[in-house]
């Protein structure tokens, strides 16, 4: 890496050497770096926080399906709706 002169600063996250910084321009340069879209990274949030919402919703949906089909099988067991059972499952369950 080339030797830095007095007044030059290295930004390790960019891997480049920035030229001489005049004290009046220092805040403007820092502000520009913060406001750039590719540099605007928030370290307070987890990066995959938004992607983790799919699994609980899917599990809730599957749990609802289990309850629904459990109620259907229980209704068949009790003999409720024998005509519907005859139409959909055949006469095997009503004999």
User: How many distinct domains?
Assistant: 2
Helical content band: 40-55%
Question: End-to-end span in angstroms?
Answer: 88 Å
Supply the helix-strand structural class.
mainly alpha
What's the overall geometry? rod-shaped
Radius of gyration: 33 Å
- For the secondary structure, the number of strands is 2
Strand order of the biggest β-sheet:
1-2
Give the topology string: H per helix, E per strand. EEHHH
> Number of DSSP helices?
3
Mean pLDDT: 67
Taken as a percent bin, the fraction of beta residues is: 5-15%
Specify the biggest β-sheet.
2 strands, antiparallel
Q: Stretches where pLDDT falls below 50 for ≥5 residues?
A: none
Task: Please give a structural write-up.
This protein has 95 residues and is mostly helical. The chain folds into two domains: 9-39, no CATH class; 50-93. It is 45% helix and 6% strand. It has three helices and two strands. A two-stranded antiparallel sheet has the order 1-2. Strand 1 (9-11) and strand 2 (16-18) form a beta hairpin. The protein is rod-shaped and about 95 Å long. The mean pLDDT is 67.
